[in-house]
Amino acid sequence: MDFGKIGGVLHKYFDTDYIDIKRDVAGTLREIYSNIPCHVAYSSVDNPDPTSVDTKPIIQSITIHLENYVDIQNNDFIIAKKIGSDGSLIATYSGRCGNPVVSQGRKKVLMQMSGTQAENPTPLPPKSPAIITVEYFCNDSAILDSEKQEAQIGIAFDLTAPVIEGYKVAECYIDGIKQESATAHIDNVLMSGHTIRFVYAVSDVPEFFRFLVNGLYTKDSGSLAKGYHLYKKVDIENIEINGNEYTITSDNVELTHADNGKLLTVTEGAEMLLIPSNVFVSVKKIVKREKGKVTFTATAFEPTEKQKDAYICGWYD
To answer: Around Cβ 228, how many Cβ atoms within 10 Å?
Structure first.
């Protein structure tokens, strides 16, 4: 039979076992391959006395079927790992093999048994992963596209809700069940996978600001543009609000714009957008600068249409 035409099919459906291959190199047994997919077939067994219920047939030799690319040679030491239908290791065998028999798309070797409990087999590769679908919602509407993550079946999985500008995480649901905290934790990942939904609420209190700049800038796509844009994310350490007046403490930043060279710092007249409340303010007074911090007062103003449409430059963050 020309296995070259169906070798890929045989590999996909029959090579569910694994072998490690070791070779004598300068008097030392060295591992050449580990966890090579193959098919382990029992070639011959002895025939003990059938009247003795305590005596079981003993496997004497094993035939290993595998793909042609594997460099297996006469007298290589083989550790064969037989895998059950659930993906678990059910038996290991070890011994020396003979010369491989090669066909168009497959090869096979006969291995003479030297033990049924192989020493130090390489751990099996991870099982096929489960798929975890992660959703991001606010008021029953998606605020980000859902994502797919892989997780190993049978172990724990943890995921922390990402920070999304203008929102704060409020709740977490796993497979429709509300969790005690906003952090996702799955004790035992199932083969069928899971769905994690993070529910966010709109945050009203400003958490950071961006400088409002007019000039050359780089879009997130990498292309250059010119006009109003919101540059850099500066965290707000403390804020007090009194109507349209704000008293803000932040890092005393001094930034040089990467594209237009403008010096951006918290100084009187500087304009910025408070996020997530999306309020445009102008700095009125510097209260103090000390220990790398600046406290200043700012007043809200009504932006022009072009200022309202200012591009948010995540590129520089």
So the answer is: 19
pLDDT greater than 80 at residue 178: yes
On whether the CB atoms of residues 266 and 212 are closer than 8 A, the answer is no
The answer to whether 125 and 35 are in contact (CB under 8 A) is: yes
Query: Which secondary-structure segment (H or E) carries 41?
Result: strand 28-45
The CA distances from residue 315 to 220, 259, 267, in Å, are: 5, 12, 24
Query: Which residue from 292, 242, 241 is spatially nearest to 266, judged by alpha carbons?
Result: 292
Instruction: Tell me the pLDDT band of 273, cut-offs 50, 70 and 90.
Output: very high
Mean pLDDT confidence for 147-171 = 85
> Which tokens is 257 given?
């714009």
Q: Are residues 155 and 243 in the same domain?
A: no
Are 87 and 17 contacting, i.e. CB atoms less than 8 angstroms apart? no
Task: Quick: pLDDT tens for 13-54.
Answer: 788 899 999 998 888 888 888 889 999 998 765 555 545 545
Contacts of 232 (CB under 8 A, 6+ apart): 210, 211, 253, 255, 264, 313, 316, 317
Contacts of 131 (CB under 8 A, 6+ apart): 148, 149, 150, 151, 193
User: What is the extent of the structural domain holding 55?
Assistant: 3-115
Q: What does residue 22 show for φ and ψ, rounded to 5 degrees?
A: -120, 150
CATH number at residue 147: 3.10.20.320
61 sits in which H/E element: strand 59-67
Tokens of 105: 């798309």
